[in-house]
Amino acid sequence: MPRTQFVAAPPTGSELRQISGPATNWISQLRRQRRDPHGAAQEDENTYGPVHVLNMFGSRWIIAAGPDAAQQVLMNRDRVFANGPAWKPLNGPFFDRGLLMLDFDEHKAHRAIMQQAFGRSALNSYLEALHTIVERHIAELPEGSVAEGNPVLMHKRLEQLTLDVALEVFMGARLPRAEADRISGAIMALLHAGGAMVRISLPGSRWRKGLRARRTLEVFLAERITAARDQQGADLLSVLCHATGEDGERFTDEDVVNHMVFLLAAAHDTTTGTLANIVYNLAKYPDWQKRARARSLDMPHELGYDELADLTELDWIFKETTRLCTPIQIEPRVAVRDTEICGYFVPEGSMVIVPALANHHRPEIWSHPEEFDPERFSDDRAEHKRHRMAWAPFGGGPHKCLGQHFAGLEIKMVLHQLLRSFEWEVPQDYIMPLDMSATPLPEDSLPVTLRRRG
Length: 454
Ligand code: HEM
Hints:
The chain is an alpha+beta fold. It has 16 helices and 14 strands. The protein has helices at about 25-35, 35-50, 65-75, 85-90, 105-115, 120-140, 155-170, 175-195, 205-230, 235-240, 255-285, 285-300, 305-310, 310-325, 355-360, 405-420; strands spanning about 5, 20, 50-55, 60-65, 80, 150-155, 330-335, 340, 345, 350-355, 420-425, 435, 440, 445-450. Bound molecules: protoporphyrin IX containing FE. Protoporphyrin IX containing FE (HEM) binds near residues 100 and 403.
């Protein structure tokens, strides 16, 4: 049993409890969590209570475990938990002034404008371009076999598709291949930089490449804004250039650049990681692949907004995959003044963590939480309705993911077409190795046997 550490005591006379936790150093803590993430989370909660403290990455994290604590922190009714100072140490300077980094009144005003780019009519306007890209990429997929030594690396393929969505649907840019590769490369460098271990700008470092990538994207976006302001196109950049708040306020050019840089990053690994995970799950559970395919074959090739929602089995599979392998594993916040979470005293300046991934594995909510069981989301079972924050891969409250519906449309459209055109499998003993350092992504690019359907 490790020694116990304590967070500051509540003020005298207060009935709030004092937060405690294991005094384990953060490297041992990280090892322990990598070995058995859910076992470690459960053990800490059993020993120290749902709100406890852990040493992580050289600082102290207050873990607000369970759906009640998640609701209190993410809903943030007392406006006491801030995003900017919490995400910045994790993400670095690469997404400065992106929507997720803004707080309180400023965040509310920017979100009100940006919401127009994610409303139903805007989403409908992206569908045509989205469909064209997905159709092109699915048509270009080769056949391949793991046994014959020429597997198809599905994650790589899905990444190329998502990067084209970023260029064409987000920025309205149909570019020559070399220029498309330069901009896609900048998006990828930006994503890799935030998770770098060496967090200063040394020559050749991921950090320096990230700073250069941000500059490349800033210049590219700034050049496109002039044209986008003159003419309303059907891409996200164009919509942001013309969107207005309740009192007619608009984003400046600088705002549009900052928001676009963040959106490109927010959309990428989350979407490709989820797609790769679904492809993997459907290979591991061929009965579910058959069930999802049967529904897709019953529907037209090109689906509209409402029809995509009718892919019932795919919807459960999407939900179950993001439950088991949550793309954003934690939601960090900083307490801007003394406060409380579920009766525990939280001093000003504390880093508070909502453990989204661990919350998706709680046995009091999910039956056999480690099992892949998409039907738990059916109307009959509806395990996700046992608590408002039971299933929350897109977060909750004022910072809830704005791209949730966009992500759902893209993911379902890709899988619908993939299921109609291909069958795929992995060897029986294959377990996809995941890099969990940020958004979980397959370390081996997910090699599968892929056959075109006759
Ligand atoms: C499976 C895919 C995705 C997942 C699981 C996901 C998850 C999340 C989560 C958990 C947050 C909240 C983080 C927090 O509260 O600290 C968030 C915020 C956000 N996401 Fe997503 N996301 C996905 C895809 C997308 C896409 C495709 C876009 C854009 C097209 C997007 C745009 C945003 C934006 C703008 C925010 C910030 C909202 C705000 O601060 O008000 N996301 N996302």
